Amino acid sequence: MNIVFAGTPEFAVAPLKKIVENGFTVVGVITQTDKPQGRKGILTPPPVKVAAEALGIPVLQPEKIKDELPAVKALGGELLVTCAYGQILTQETLDCFPKGVWNIHAGLLPKYRGASPIQSCILAGETQTGVSVMKTELGLDSGDILLEERTPIDEKETCGELSKRLSLLGAEAIVKALKRIETGEYTLTKQSAEGVNVVRKIHKEQAKIDFTKTAKEIVDLVRGMNPAPVAYTALDGNKINVYLAEKASLEEGEENAACGEVLSESVKRGLVVKCGDGAVKLLEVQAAGGKRMKGGDFLNGRKARKGQVLEC
Fold first, then answer.
1. Which of 89, 176, 262, 292 has its CA 20 to 30 A from that of 139?
2. Which segment of 36-40, 198-202, 285-289 scores lowest on mean pLDDT?
3. In the CATH scheme, what is the code of domain 2-199?
4. In terms of C-beta distances under 8 Å and separation of at least 24 residues, what long-range contacts does 271-274 make, across chains too?
5. How many Cα atoms are found within 13 Å in the side-chain-facing hemisphere of 265?
């Protein structure tokens, strides 16, 4: 069974490698074009391209896959596996693969269809997520499910940490799926028509902390925005990135402080800020142009003082 793999970011590398390690024949990899990165705009290949070249697999990088179908067909793939590829496939593209197109989706369906299932489930305070292997159709993540693997979310787990775990879980899941497809011994389950939800791409403006929210909501926001686009607030108009946070306790007399007010003045207590239902401790922060540091060190450096109010 000749397989073509389409993926782009680091998340898709583990599934590609696992497919090859398990003896499946990957005849080609399709990925996005190289993109300029960093302040110097250095043209950088996608992680999947780097992995494919290391494995000796031919790589295609079409601007639009639908415009280069002859090259795609020339790879000789019977089946296409997609994983965070980044382009919508047309019916003509789907028809290139007689054994179907199968997608590794980093979320549970139909609740987390769309572009940001990992971030969105953390932002929603979910305690469980998973990966779904589904047969791709024209609808957005609406195809029938071949299998689903679930996993709990730790209350301190960041989006970056969860992404790494789901990448490995997706790698195991697609190997199971391919073995079933190869033998023809599988069943498909239609997605429920109830609870359908589409999660859109997360934008930077959504990462601003609103200290009128509960401590849990703020902590979940910080977790969900780490490593990108990073939760933030501001003090006297100066931006402060927040990488880690946890719920904190109020001390006597602090109940009437303003939301966003810095409550602490000691390094030992840390950078504790009043929020909607109590307090939240900002564990790791970064001032504009500065380095990441512990909240207590931020106080010690007089970058914030007790009584100052962070923007909500």
1. 176
2. 36-40
3. 3.40.50.170
4. 271/295, 271/296, 271/298, 271/299, 271/304, 272/248, 273/211, 273/310, 274/211, 274/250
5. 4
Name the token pair of 103.
């997608």
Per-residue CA distances from 135 to 131, 186, 223, 259 (Å): 13, 12, 31, 47
Q: Tell whether the model's pLDDT for residue 39 goes beyond 90.
A: no
Contact (Cβ atoms closer than 8 angstroms) between residue 125 and residue 102: no
Cα separation, 165 vs 257, whole angstroms? 40
291, burial (CB in 10 Å: exposed 0-12, middle 13-18, buried 19+): exposed
User: What is this structure's pTM?
Assistant: 0.95
What are the residue boundaries of the structural domains of the chain, listed by start? 2-199, 204-300
Q: How would you class 264 by CB atoms within 10 Å of its CB: exposed for 0-12, middle for 13-18, buried for 19 or more? A: buried
* 204-300 belongs to CATH 3.30.450.20: no
